[in-house]
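Dear colleagues,

As part of the handover before I leave the project, I'm documenting each prediction I ran so the next person doesn't have to rerun anything. This entry is a single chain, and its sequence is reproduced below.
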Amino acid sequence: MSLTPVPVALKALIDSVPGLLTAETLPLAACAGRVLVEDLKALRTQPPFANSAMDGYAVRADDLTIGTELRVIGEAAAGRSFGGALAAGEAVRIFTGAPLPEGADTILIQENAEGVGGPVITVREGATKGRFVRPAGLDFREGKILLKAGTRLDSAALGLAAAMGHPALSVRKKPLVAILATGDELVFPGEPVGPDQIVASNSYALAALVEQAGATALDLGIARDTHEDLAEKIGRARSADADVLVTLGGASVGEHDLVQAALKAQGMELGFWKIAMRPGKPMMMGRLGRMVAVGLPGNPVSSIVCGHLFVLPLIEALLGMPDPQRDRSEPGLLGRDLPANDERQDYLRASLVLTGAGWQATPFEKQDSSMLAALSRADALVIRPAFAEPAKQNSPCRIIRLR
């Protein structure tokens, strides 16, 4: 079987999504990190009235000749307006956010007035008409679409939705991603480690990645290298109605690599297997009913890199976010020379330094796919295309930032 190029594999994975997840309506306070189902219109105008942007005096611009005395006739504060109207030669003491009194058109900031706090002030410095006045609708007006469907609701978007007057939002349900580690050699952290065993780490890393992407992770534990145990764990994922099953390890061709066979035995339609990338070559994808099955390599770095490149876009596709197949890379400069590359696209762990010319990315000397400590220090992945020629330090490259 020939190796599948990364873009082809990503397209096949996104195309395998059976459809968007259904919607649910949640109170605004429960919507952090969720994805909007529909465009969101403002239910009100913001600000709803002209108001002061500074502490000072509401005045008429025509009265702001230096040395002019103005009689203070009242006070306006946020939430407490001045009920009267302003005439020539008068001023109203005003504070930030307070409605502009009728007849006023300008704010004289208190630093430019003498006699602050008294019944009469003297203009020390003039101001143009409209200075320090926020007009009604400065931010937005009722009926305007301000947040589009597919928007992930971060702190700014949630604040905007609240200001628009929405107490609850229609958001996409979280995808359920079942994660299954495989292998007789694995034990959980804290358990006794036998002479031929290692501590399982991939499932914890993938669960964190999945949760950060806006999905819910379901840990299925560790499946031993038997068809029976694999079948039981895969059945648990199906019984939980998981949208995605991510298996870790066992996707290669060795006698103990049983995952693909176990999935096929339950009816999986294989989409692709083996990708022209390093690390991550043994990755596979298929459909098991409506559940998308993604088989990641067992090496820790391979599984995490594949998680960034494939599992994150898959979650975005399920959530209806725009363009999940987009190019997530950005330009950089190499921090050291690199040799020519073979037929597999490389994703090299690298450190980043911001220079005057942009990001300088220096790939680590050791790139073994078992080295989690190196990955934890990496700021980015340097992409080396298949069959790339030797590259010199400071030559252009493409990077995917990890943090």
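The longest strand covers residues 345-355. The chain has a mean pLDDT of 95.

All the best with the project,
I.
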